[in-house]
Specification:
single chain; 424 residues; alpha+beta; D-Amino Acid Oxidase, Chain A, domain 2; 2 domains; eight-stranded mixed sheet; 11 helices; 20 strands
């Protein structure tokens, strides 16, 4: 990614580009890999870049490297549906995600880069009185924590999302919903680019095409990482490799309580504005969360595939399930053509909540197990993980999200609810 000098007009830049002239300057590439760093972060996705940014900005650690086996933003940060929210039930989760949502609100200013935060609202739809009771419970928990939540009856839902009223009779009718007005969407690639630029400006080395293949230890302490470019010394190591957390555990000789599953999504051809918020709909057969991108495409996603995989290959039966639920919710979109269909790799823990903790060695840290919550967690995750790495003490915000909870039985059971918390 690069930027142009403001003294050139759009026409002069186009002319210069066609002529092969080099007015474009790299924003983060070009750093040379050094022999050693105070902190090495493995993974140049949202969590890795945010951690490196906060290490440099908040804690003054300048000798930081982010090592990425491919390209900045190539993984899950660019393979999601861009939804941000904090409408969780458990205090350990809703406080964390609320911290993240507050950071999303000011992130464009902090990074001096427009991440396109759009508080269009996230609306969980209820199809029965029993589901309304569940939504009321979650909404009350959120309001007690100072988080915005509004329980809507059916007329309230139709007033907020009039596109639903145009659908006519449904087999599974909508009786109400839970709205978080400040929830919404953020542009995913802008997040990766903004953090990369800001971290690089603070002196962080971002090294692409540099795969980490192992950890070197001496006397029970990690001394650095083995990479495809050779050994790199490190005082501390952070693994932030969403979708490959289990592989990191195996690299270190650990069997982590994580399975990697695919989460598929798709987007249609662009249409005029129709959907003004994020709608979450879970009928008895099928499921969908749907929104409309700034380009006009209708973006849809659903449940996990249900079996472990690293392939990122889309499954036709999942496309059929998700699209079927979307059309049941919004029959108006039935004739649209699907433009793209993709899959991201989700590290699913046993309780549906993430892990930020030390991993085998005192100076090795894991930032992973994000289940459905990875993208929305990036700002809070980066700040909290950086504090943990810099000080050696986990902040209160993430203290309960340790690896030991699985052995002690202190689970944070959100049931992996992610985008479908209505049945909690």
């Amino acid at each position: 990614m690069s930027a142009a000098s403001p003294r050139y007009s759009a026409w002069s830049l186009l002319r210069a580009r066609l002529a092969g002239e080099g007015f474009w300057q790299p924003l983060w590439s070009g750093a040379r890999l050094k022999d050693g760093y105070d902190v090495v972060v493995v993974g140049a996705g949202g969590h890795g870049l945010a951690t490196a940014y906060h290490l440099a900005r908040d804690h003054g650690i300048k000798r930081v490297a982010v090592l990425e086996k491919r390209l900045v933003g190539y993984g899950n940060v660019g393979r999601n549906t861009t939804i941000v929210r904090s409408n969780y039930l458990l205090p350990e989760n809703h406080y964390f995600y609320e911290d993240s949502l507050r950071r999303w609100e000011r992130l464009s200013r902090d990074l001096n880069y427009n991440v396109m935060y759009s508080p269009r609202g996230v609306l969980d739809l209820a199809l029965s009185d029993g589901e309304m009771i569940g939504l009321a419970r979650r909404g009350n928990a959120m309001r007690l924590a100072g988080i915005d939540a509004e329980l809507l009856d059916r007329p309230g839902v139709m007033k907020f999302a009039p596109e639903l009223a145009a659908a006519g009779p449904r087999r599974f009718d909508i009786v109400g919903g839970l709205l978080q007005p400040r929830g919404g969407t953020v542009r995913h690639d802008a997040v990766a680019w903004g953090y990369a630029r800001a971290a690089s400006a603070l002196g962080v080395d971002i090294i692409e095409d540099c795969e980490v293949q192992g950890v070197r230890t001496a006397a029970g302490v990690a001394t650095g990482v083995e990479t495809t470019r050779g050994f790199v010394g490190a005082g501390r190591i952070v693994f932030a490799v969403a979708g490959h957390t289990g592989a990191v555990g195996r690299m270190l000789g650990l069997n982590l309580p994580v399975e990697t599953h695919l989460l598929q999504a798709m987007v249609t051809e662009p249409i005029k504005p129709l959907i003004g918020s994020v709608l979450i709909y879970v009928p008895p057969h099928g499921e969908v969360y749907v929104t409309q991108s700034d380009r006009g495409g209708v973006v849809m996603g659903g449940f996990l595939d249900g079996f472990p995989s690293y392939t990122r290959e889309g499954q036709w039966y999942r496309l059929e399930d998700v699209v079927g639920a979307a059309v049941a919710l919004l029959p108006q979109i039935a004739s649209l053509r699907i433009l793209r269909h993709w899959a991201g790799t989700n590290d699913m823990t046993m309780d549906g909540s993430f892990i930020i903790d030390r991993l085998r060695h005192d100076n090795v840290f894991l930032n992973g197990g994000w289940c459905y919550g990875g993208f929305k967690a990036i700002p809070a995750s980066g700040a909290a993980c950086a504090t943990f790495v810099a000080t050696g003490t986990a902040p209160d915000l993430i203290r309960a999200h340790n690896l030991g909870r699985f052995a002690s039985g202190h689970l944070l059971d959100e049931r992996g609810g992610g985008p479908f918390p209505v049945r909690q």
